[in-house]
Amino acid sequence: MSEKILVTRSSMPPIEEYFDEIRELWDSHWLTNMGVKHRELESILSEYLGVEYVSLMTNGHLALENILQAMDLSGEVITTPFTFASTTNAIVRNGLKPVFCDIKEDDYTIDPDKIEALITDKTCAILPVHVYGNICDTEKIQRIADKYGLKVIYDAAHAFGERYMGKGIGTYGDASMFSFHATKVFNTIEGGAAVFKSKELYDKIAELKNFGICSQDCVKYVGGNAKMNEFQAAMGICNMRHIDEELEKRRMAVERYRERLGNADGIKLSPVREDVVYNYAYFPVVFDKKKFGADRDEIADRLARNDIIARKYFYPLTNSFESFHGEYDVSLTPIAADISNNVLTLPLYADLTVDVVDKICNLILESEC
Ligand SMILES: *Cc1c(COP(=O)(O)O)cnc(C)c1O
Question: Residues near 216 by Cβ (< 8 Å), separated by ≥ 6?
Fold first, then answer.
C-alpha cells in the first residue's frame, strides 16, 4: 500500500457544489456575524438533530465553554477523565473544578452508580461524554441531577445525529455540545454547536459568542468570540446533503470490523444497543493481553509498520495531564486507567473500503494464539 491509512479522513462535498454554495458571498460581502449561511445551517441542524435550539460556533470546544459560562456555574463539576482534552479544559478554563468519576467497563461512559459518592455541597453540574458515540445512562444521570439540583451538560462531540429511544441525543440533559471538526462524522472544517431546549439559553449564548454584545450600545456579558463564519456554514450545508450516504458507508465498514473481530478471544468491542440509532463515528477495540497474546502498543506498532495509523484514543487520561501537575489522583478512576492503557481506535471513515478493513483485521489477528 503506497498511501498511509490514517485513523480518519475528512468528508468533503464535490468541489463545484461548495463553489456554488459560497458564490453568493461574493455578492453579499457578508462573511461572518450570523449571516445567511449561519442561520440556514442552524435551521437544518435543528431539524436533523431533533433539538429546539442550535447555536453554531467556531468549534466544539468553544461551544462547551460558552454553555458552561451561560449557566453561571461555580464550584465542582463531576465528569469523566476518559475523554479528549477539551472536556476537562473547558471546565477548568471556566474557573470550575473537575471531579473525576470512573467509567463503565462495557461502554466507557461515566458510571452513574459512582456519581453520588462524589457530590458535595459545591457540586453544580455533571458533564458526561457520549464517548465513541456510546450513549450515557441518561436516565440515571438525570435522576441524580434532579435529586441534587444539578445541571447536566453532555459532551456529544462523538454523537452527531444519534438517536436514543426515538429522540435526538441532544435533547437529553440541559444542554449538549457537538463538534464539527474535520475529523468528525459531520464537519464544517472546524466548527461546533451548543444545543438546548431553552430559548433563554439560546439568546444568552447568541450574545456570549459575540463578546456579550446585546445591541449597538450595550455589552451585557464578558463574552469571547466564537461565531461560526459563512465559509464554515457553507461547508456544513453541503456536507449535510450527503450525510445519509456517509453514515451508510461508515456502517458498512463497521459491520465488516465486527464480523472479523467480534469473536476473537481477548478483543472487546463496544456493545450495540437496540434502542440507539448509531452514527458509526469510531471503532474502539480493547485488547486483553493475557487472552489475546499481544498488547495494544504492539498492535499499534505492527499496524504502523504497515502504514496504518490507529490511535490510542483516549490515552493518557485527562486527570493525568502534565498541565494539572499531579493535582488529581488517577488511581481513583481505575477502570478508566485500564481501558486507556488497552484501547486502540481503528481507522474509520466513509471512504474506507472493505478491503482495507480486511487488511487491518488480518494484521491484528495474526497475533492471536
Ligand atoms: C473533538 C472533541 C471535542 C472538541 O471539539 P472541537 O470541535 O475540536 O473543538 C470535545 N470533546 C470531544 C470528546 C471531542 O472528541
Answer: none
3-state secondary structure of 103: strand
Question: Ligand 1, closest atom to CA 83?
Answer: 13
Q: For 100-140, write each residue's pLDDT tens digit.
A: 999 999 999 999 999 999 999 999 999 999 999 999 999 99
User: Ligand 1: which atom is nearest the Cα of residue 192?
Assistant: 7
179, 186, 189, 348: residue to mutate for ligand 1 pocket, most atoms within 8 A of CB: 179
**What pTM value is reported for the model?**
0.97
CA angle, residues 257, 247, 311, in degrees to nearest 5: 50
CA distance 259 to 178: 30
Q: pLDDT per residue over 322-357, tens digit each?
A: 999 999 999 999 999 999 999 999 999 999 999 999
Phi–psi pair at 178, nearest 5 degrees:
-115, 145
Cβ < 6 Å from ligand 1: which residues? 59-61, 83-84, 86-87, 129, 155, 157-158, 179, 181, 192
Nearest Cα neighbor of 357 from 289, 287, 281, 303 is: 303
pLDDT of 74 over the 70 cut: yes
Residue 124 contacts residue 98 (beta carbons within 8 Å)? no
**Can you say whether residue 212 is alpha, beta or left, with left for phi > 0 and alpha for psi between -120 and 50 degrees?**
left
